[in-house]
Every structure is written in structure tokens, then in C-alpha cells.
Write a structure and sequence with these properties.
The complex is a heterodimer of chains A (329) and B (201).
Chain A lengths: L7 H7 L15 H33 L8 H36 L7 E8 L2 E6 L8 E4 L1 E5 L4 E7 L4 E4 L7 E3 L5 E5 L5 E7 L11 E7 L1 H12 L8 H12 L2 H4 L23 E2 L4 E2 L2 H9 L1 H4 L12 H13 L2
Parallel strand pairs in A: 1-5, 4-10
Antiparallel strand pairs in A: 1-2, 2-3, 5-8, 6-7, 6-9, 9-10, 11-12
Helix pairs in contact in A: 2-3, 5-9, 7-9
Chain B lengths: L10 H21 L10 H7 L3 E2 L6 E2 L2 H5 L3 H4 L1 H13 L3 H4 L21 H10 L14 H14 L27 H5 L14
Antiparallel strand pairs in B: 1-2
Helix pairs in contact in B: 5-8, 7-8
The chains are: A alpha+beta (329), B mainly alpha (201).
Organism (chain B): Rhizobium deserti
Keywords (chain B): Heme, Iron, Membrane, Metal-binding, Transmembrane, Transmembrane helix
GO molecular function (chain B): electron transfer activity; heme binding; metal ion binding
Chain lengths: 329, 201
């Protein structure tokens, strides 16, 4: 459908609502484009109907009233009502058919080359790149990469309560439901960083449950995946090395995994390459040494109710751990 | 006092009024939610470490701050729910099963090897116990240990309670935590104990 071209002035007005990086109007994927075309088509048709109704009503109010009686008036009335009924049925039928066509096209992608398991939990996202060969499998949190122009199959799961996976620029919403697996196929047609977030109220920090989808060319994607498969880098500075030792001896290691070390907890996000992600705490803060320190020092003030406790640390230990985390590229 | 007499209306009107007032009060009390404190102040968590065990490591005195917190780890629904979460997260079930024991002792046979007090349970989790119970002091923070202890105490409680953790997602394999324990679970009798774990049941 090429209707979007005519809507440019309207879109300019609406651009005030779009944040750019996360907007259904900034459609960059197969499903999102189909949904956007559908809604624009429906809005156009409904606007036309609304205008017609208002015009006819205005005309009925303004015209000089002339009492008509008899057979001619009856016939006129019959024609008017019949036309209204036929038009209503026709328009509803066309909209239903358009909606059916769009919905069918959303589920057509079956030749996915990449499968990612998306485990939503209070309040972060776990992205698992499963593989029969465990040396190729890896996982990350709150940020994942996909190859551009390829269908990607997402298996949506939930650990605790119902969440909903939504990247407005790439696809429609799909719920993550505990105890079952929903499948969403999406495709990004243009490289870029797309923001998504939980779209089903899931508790206190629902609004701080965002993630990023990085769509990139196949070669870049393969390079990223190869880098993610690596075990964590060894700290180079003395400060970071001390941070690693603190991390292993404190409760940190009981909930977080850093592959290549003895830290193998599974209830918190995998931190093997935490320094390579652009945000921490599900999109709450940019990844810098300062924000890492702030988060580790007092997670319950930054994101009240989340499951990360305040671990008692001295100021030196806090500095060392932050240096270690920042270095885990 | 004359103004307080109810000569001006029929008695049933007064009774209905009193009923509605009582309902209103109940609704207001129900509406005032239990306040939740997510952030445990560092001085409080430091104080929570200060448990004083008896020399035989069974029971003892909890820190003063525990009473200042209204014993929330035993009575607060949120804390019990967090304890239930940690029971899974920190692998308690791998030895203690659903609470009926396995390679570790049962919490539901009516016999606590080190007594049923919170202090004993906190100490068991934090510092470990002989014959296989590991210490969790480097795996959990002290407030998490208190939350988990409250939950474990509720599994083996001798009587029903008004505060409960969230429900199971899976099929129930034992009575709910806040229920009165099923008598049959006590009749099974406790696991045999080692001589250094206190008197035999």
C-alpha cells in the first residue's frame, strides 16, 4: 500500500509523539510496516466516513425544510437507508478483509535462520542463543543483536508473571506467559538500534523493563556472536583484578554468571560481557563506571523492589568491582 | 448526655448505621496497605548480623533491631514471598525437597534439630551446620538470609498463620505454608539425628 505517501503532513504533526528510537510510526521491519499500513488505511477510511456523515448532517440541518409526504418521500427514505446499510456492510467487510490479510502476512516467516529464547522476568530480559553444541550457545541480557533482512524466531517465555515483548519499530506485541511458549517472528529491514519494552503491566518496575535490539549486517552480527561466545576477558589493571576477587567472594557470584570464572549464578543477568552492552538494569542507566558503581552501591534506591540486594562493600571494594564490570567487554 | 440518646430515631436505624460504620472501618483498615521497605539501610543489615547463639548453638537472642522491624521476616507477606523465591534460587530444594526433606532434614516432621527459633535457622543458613549444610554467608546478604529463614520457619510452623507467601505456580505437593500442618506429616517421625546434633527426638 502506498497510502503513507499522502499522509506525510499528518505524520509530521504526529512526529511530536514519536521518540524516534521507539515508535510504531518509525516502522523498519516487515511486521511493523504491515501493521502501520493497516492502521493508516483504517484511519483514512474512517476519516472519510466521518467527514461524509458530518457533511450530510450539516446539510440536513441547514437546508430549507420542505415537508414531503406520500409515496415519493417513502421511496426516497428507502433508498437512503438501503445505501447506508450497504455502505456500512461494505466498509466493515473491506476493513475486516484488510485486517485478515495483514495478520496472515505476519505469520508467514517460517524459514528463520536465528532462534532466540526470550525469558522475561521481573524486571529484565534474558536472551538465550541456544544451540545443540553448548560451545556455540551463549546468552545475554537486555540487549541482543540480529542480522538485518533475515527472519528471526523468538521463543517468548516468562519466569514469574505475564510480560509482553514489544519492539514497536519491528513487530507487534506478543505476550510472555509463564508455563507456555509463544513464538514471534520478526525481521529488521534496516540496520539500526531499536528500543523495546515490556508492554504488559508486571509489577513495580514495569516501566523500567526496556531492552535494545541491534540490527546489523550479517558479517557484523557474526563478529558480535563470536565475541559473545568468548569467556570473560581477564582484567588487565590491578584494580580490576582486585574487583574480580571481591566479586567472587561476595554474594554477587551466587546470582550472576561470568563465564570463565567460578561465578555461575543463574538468577541474575549474565555479566560475562556486561561492559559491551550500552545500558544496565534493563535500560535504566548507560553503562559507565560511575553508573555501575551507583547501581551496585544502592540498587534499591535506583529501582525500588528489584531483586538485587545492597551488598555491603567498602568504598575501595565498590571502586574495584565497578572497574572489573566496566572492563568485561 | 441527652444529645447522645437516640430518642429521635427508631432503634433499627441506629443499628443499620452502626453496621455501615463498622463496614466502613473494616474497608479503611483493609485499604491501608502494609508498608513495604525494599531498601534495607546498611546500619540495619549490620545489626541483623548480631545474633547471639547459646553456647550449644541451639537458639539464642535475636538482635534488638528484629523487634524494631516488627518481626517482619516472620509476619510480612512480602518478606515471606521473597524467602520463597530464595528457597528456589539458592537451591534449598536440592537437599530439602519441597520442605519434606531429602538428603537434608525435613522441615515438616515437627522436629527441629537446632530448635524452631529464627535465630537458629538464620545461624544454620548463614554459618552452615555439620553433616552437609553449607554456609551461605558469602552467597546471600543478611537480610535475604532473614527472609529465607522466615519462609522456612513458616513451612514447618506448628500452627496456622494469617500471613502467607505467594501461591505456587506448580502443583502443590504439601500443605500451603500458612495452613495448619497436616497431622500425617508429623506422624511420620523425624529423620534420625547424629549425636552432635542435640538430643534425639
Amino acid at each position: 500500500m502506498k497510502t503513507s505517501r499522502f499522509l506525510f503532513p499528518l505524520l509530521v504533526l504526529l512526529s511530536g509523539c514519536s521518540g524516534g528510537v521507539q515508535s510504531a510510526l518509525n516502522a523498519q521491519g516487515h511486521s511493523a510496516v504491515a501493521l502501520k499500513d493497516l492502521i493508516i488505511f483504517i484511519v483514512l477510511v474512517c476519516t472519510a466516513v466521518w467527514l461524509a456523515v458530518v457533511l450530510v448532517m450539516a446539510w440536513a440541518l441547514m437546508r430549507r425544510h420542505k415537508r414531503q409526504e406520500g409515496e415519493a418521500a417513502e421511496r426516497k427514505m428507502t433508498i437512503a437507508v438501503s445505501v447506508a446499510i450497504v455502505m456500512t456492510v461494505l466498509i466493515v467487510g473491506v476493513l475486516t478483509f484488510a485486517s485478515f490479510l495483514t495478520t496472515r502476512s505476519l505469520y508467514s516467516g517460517t524459514d528463520a535462520t536465528v532462534t532466540i529464547r526470550v525469558r522475561a522476568q521481573q524486571w529484565w530480559w534474558q536472551f538465550i542463543y541456544d544451540n545443540a553444541d553448548p560451545s556455540i550457545a551463549f546468552q545475554t541480557a537486555n540487549e541482543f543483536h540480529i542480522p538485518v533482512g533475515k527472519d528471526v524466531r523468538l521463543q517468548l517465555e516468562a519466569v514469574d508473571v505475564i510480560h509482553s515483548f514489544w519492539v514497536p519499530s519491528l513487530a507487534g506485541k506478543q505476550d510472555n506467559i509463564p508455563g507456555r511458549e509463544n513464538v514471534l517472528t520478526l525481521r529488521a529491514d534496516k540496520p539500526g538500534v531499536y528500543r523495546g519494552q515490556c508492554a504488559e503491566f508486571c509489577g513495580l518496575q514495569h516501566s523500567h523493563m526496556a531492552f535494545l535490539v541491534v540490527a546489523e549486517e550479517e558479517a557484523d552480527y557474526q563478529r558480535w556472536a563470536a565475541q559473545q561466545r568468548q569467556a570473560a576477558v581477564q582484567p588487565v589493571s590491578a584494580e580490576a583484578a582486585a574487583g574480580r576477587d571481591v566479586f567472587m567472594s561476595k554474594p554477587c557470584a551466587a546470582c550472576h554468571t561470568v563465564r570463565g570464572t567460578q561465578a555461575s549464578g543463574t538468577s541474575g543477568p549474565d555479566l560475562t560481557h556486561v561492559g559491551s552492552r550500552s545500558t544496565i538494569a534493563a535500560g535504566l542507566l548507560e553503562t559507565t563506571r560511575g553508573s555501575l558503581a551507583a547501581w551496585i552501591a544502592d540498587p534499591q534506591t535506583l529501582k525500588p523492589g528489584n531483586n538485587m540486594p545492597i551488598v555491603p562493600l567498602t568504598s575501595d571494594e565498590l571502586r574495584q568491582i565497578s572497574a572489573y564490570m566496566e572492563g568485561l567487554k | 448526655m441527652a444529645a447522645l440518646s437516640f430518642r429521635h430515631g427508631p432503634a433499627w436505624l441506629f443499628k443499620i448505621g452502626a453496621l455501615f460504620a463498622a463496614l466502613g472501618m473494616a474497608a479503611a483498615i483493609g485499604w491501608v496497605r502494609q508498608p513495604r521497605e525494599y531498601r534495607v539501610d546498611p546500619p540495619i543489615s549490620a545489626a541483623l548480623e548480631q545474633i547471639r547463639l547459646m553456647p550449644n548453638t541451639i537458639s539464642g537472642a535475636p538482635p534488638e533491631v528484629y523487634f524494631a522491624l516488627n518481626q517482619t521476616y516472620e509476619t510480612g507477606g512480602f518478606d515471606l514471598s521473597q524467602g520463597k523465591r530464595f528457597y528456589t534460587w539458592f537451591g534449598c530444594a536440592s537437599c530439602h525437597g519441597d520442605g519434606r526433606g531429602g538428603s537434608g532434614p525435613s522441615f515438616m516432621d515437627g522436629w527441629w534439630l537446632y530448635g524452631p527459633s529464627m535465630v537458629s535457622i538464620v545461624s544454620s543458613i548463614r554459618d552452615g551446620r555439620p553433616h552437609g549444610m553449607p554456609a551461605f554467608k558469602n552467597k546471600m546478604t543478611i537480610d535475604e538470609i532473614w527472609q529465607l529463614s522466615g519462609y522456612i520457619k513458616s513451612i514447618g510452623a506448628y500452627k496456622a498463620s494469617v500471613s502467607a507467601p505467594s501461591r505456587n505456580d506448580d502443583r502443590n505437593t504439601r500443605p500451603a505454608e500458612n495452613r495448619a500442618p497436616a497431622a500425617t506429616l508429623f506422624e511420620e517421625g523425624p529423620n534420625p539425628v547424629h549425636p552432635d546434633q542435640g538430643p534425639s527426638p
